[in-house]
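Q: What structure does this chain adopt?
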Amino acid sequence: MNQLTRILEGIGGAILLLLRSARHLPTLPRQFGRLVEQCYLIGYTTLPIVAILSFFIGSVLALQAGYSMQNFGAKQLIGSLVGLSMARELGPVMVAILLAGRVGSAIAAELASMKVYQEVDALVTMNIPPERMLVLPRLVAVLLMAPVLTIIANLVGWFGGAIICSTTSFIAIEPTAYFAALRQSMKFEDVLNGLVKAEVFGFTVVLVCCHIGLGTRGGPREIGAAVTRAVVVSLIMILVLDYFVTKALL
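A:
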């Protein structure tokens, strides 16, 4: 019962933080510099690891599909499998997990440190709402960057699958045939569904990490605990939301 109460309190606190941040949307043009900085931290600095992981995920998908489908004479469908898997599921989920581990942990650590060392209290004393300065630019930045990262993840993953199909002896599918199968099976709705997932997951990760960071109490030891809690809760929320969003979009 206590665990359920804490979960409900956390959800309610995150929703209240979102509402308080939304009140400051008219001030966003004056925070253009902070918004650009957050776009750089969330998008550009995360891009290399997204590209590397996407390439190998697409490669592994092609290898596993080729190994399984060669027994059924269906190797020509590998492009379809890799394309749909990356666009609808693996692309957005992988980007969200990377955002939770890399960006979310940094956000939770920074805000928890500011809270513990009373920098947030100083902002309140100067009549500067923390939601306007610390939360809103991050929420808007992740809404801008999550779809971009997902599109790049999809493209790199498709390219990785094509390379494996053309260079692996037991698959031996030319890139032209691979991409022809991919184009034949892919629809705009498949890519759009993945981008919707990326928006929902990324927004949730940043909101959760901001809420946990700003809610930190105690001393320096609590900063590490807040970071761990933020990442764990973010990963759980990604997987839970993945089911509901997938069901809603089917």
